Amino acid sequence: EEDPPYVFVVFGASGDLAKKKIYPTLWWLFRDALLPNNVNFVGYARSALSMEQLKASFEKYCKVRESEKETWDRFLRKCAYVQGKYDDAEGFKCLQKLIDGMQTAANNIAVNRLYYLALPPSVFADVTTQLKENCMDKGDSWTRVIIEKPFGHDLQSSRVLSDHLARLFKEDQLYRIDHYLGKEMVQNLMVLRFGNRIFNPSWNRDNIGSVLITFKEDFGTEGRAGYFDQSGIIRDVMQNHLMQILTLVAMEKPASLNAEDIRDEKVKVLKAISDIKLEDVVVGQYIGDGEASDESRRMGYKDDSEVPRDSKTPTYAMAVLHIKNERWEGVPFILRCGKALNEKKAEVRVQYKQVNGDIYPAGDLKRTELVMRVQPNEAVYLKMMTKKPGMGFGVEETELDLSYSSRYKDTRLPDAYERLFLEVFMGSQINFVRTDELDYAWRIFTPLLEKLEKVTPTQYKFGSRGPPEADELMRRHGFVFTG
Ligand code: BG6
């Protein structure tokens, strides 16, 4: 039996995402022999590039070791480049010819196609239309299309895009990437909840006081401020990455591990989320730290020449969401994300309520917290009270700590993209965003984004914890800083 051939085509092959993420990911998967045997990679872009030039653009991000040189050469021999326009059939016909050649070389077994659109939204529609007309499988193999956000700018534009895609492809051909779904700890959420009897019975409004989902970065938007200013932190991170985490934390147990069952449950959570009130939101924008004359000063958002002087685009946002269902009514889900903060960190913090009938001196008992640290240093830890060891009677807070770096020393945790690419090869859509899911997420955030257009974000310093009002908002919703 001959192995079926596959082709992975990268549209936007000369762009930033392709060189920094997509090619390195393909290389690592290839190097570790995780891809099907007979796979070829094709880059497609408008510029006249030789394969040598394309290679030069991604090579340094691939981190090829000396001992891997031979495998690297084999990888490169499987790479090709097609120059073509995005709105003209000619290039797509060349691509189709190239794929036909792969079929001939594989004893005429039809080629499975993965098309990755690492492209700006402005050419999305053209490329997909051309693909549909010129580059589809003929029924004895499959075609899957992978797309990257932004999936529209608001509910309306997202619907236009989704309708367009639905005219061309079936839902099971569409793979909308949200790379947070590929992260180890995000994938672990379901196992923790549904694989341990201890958590699920307490996973509700009777026991949980609040859920805090945090995304912080310690760098600003330099290099991509042009894109960022059109989008802002809510579209860039909150509406997708943080909402995906929220739905996994909040959803009911799905009927099975099947992609449709899981995504059905996520959609139910989104449907139950109430409108976000402006008073439950804090937005911020970072300014430079230090004096303008100071050479080591990190510049503020608006100091960037790509950002308009009067930009009101938030680089920090906190929003408190409420899920109106039997499990969660009254429990605030606090989403918080920001650029240019004091640290780089992403985590989920489930804060339990104060114990009832406290018998210890007032204030001694801290709240139990279950923390799932997505990055850096993946960990799950439970902050809990214990007797202070020794002669005394006092209590203190301690941790039950599962740090992956010590418990799973010898396991390499794959990059999110590696896992997600493999899932596309396998045809698993569990970790990809379904059309209705996207639609409901936009329904929640579009009205808020419209209201925020008139709001001037609070300034915060590069390297700080963000606007102080955010802590205030958390306290108002019952979050307790345990220190
Ligand atoms: C991207 C956002 O989706 O995620 C970026 O556009 C952000 O603004 C990035 O920096 C964060 O991803 P990671 O995997 O580095 O946490």
Automatic annotation (TrEMBL):
| InterPro entries for the chain | G6P_DH, G6P_DH_AS, G6P_DH_C, G6P_DH_NAD-bd, NAD(P)-bd_dom_sf
Q: Which GO terms describe its cellular component?
A: cytosol
Start and end residues of each Glucose-6-phosphate dehydrogenase C-terminal domain: 190-479
Pathway named in the protein's UniProt entry: Carbohydrate degradation; pentose phosphate pathway; D-ribulose 5-phosphate from D-glucose 6-phosphate (oxidative stage): step 1/3
SUPFAM superfamilies attached to this UniProt entry: Glyceraldehyde-3-phosphate dehydrogenase-like, C-terminal domain, NAD(P)-binding Rossmann-fold domains
User: For this chain's UniProt record, which GO biological process terms are given?
Assistant: glucose metabolic process; pentose-phosphate shunt, oxidative branch
What UniProt keywords are attached to this protein's entry? Carbohydrate metabolism, Glucose metabolism, NADP, Oxidoreductase
Coiled-coil portions: none
Q: EC number(s) per UniProt?
A: 1.1.1.49
- Catalyzed reaction equations: D-glucose 6-phosphate + NADP(+) = 6-phospho-D-glucono-1,5-lactone + NADPH + H(+)
Residue ranges of every copy of the Glucose-6-phosphate dehydrogenase NAD-binding domain listed in the record:
9-188
A GO molecular function for this record? NADP binding
Highest taxon above the source species = Eukaryota
Read off the HAMAP family from this record.
Answer: G6PD
UniProt record similarity statement = Belongs to the glucose-6-phosphate dehydrogenase family.
What the protein does comes down to: Cytosolic glucose-6-phosphate dehydrogenase that catalyzes the first and rate-limiting step of the oxidative branch within the pentose phosphate pathway/shunt, an alternative route to glycolysis for the dissimilation of carbohydrates and a major source of reducing power and metabolic intermediates for fatty acid and nucleic acid biosynthetic processes. Catalyzes the rate-limiting step of the oxidative pentose-phosphate pathway, which represents a route for the dissimilation of carbohydrates besides glycolysis.
By what name is this protein known?
Answer: Glucose-6-phosphate 1-dehydrogenase
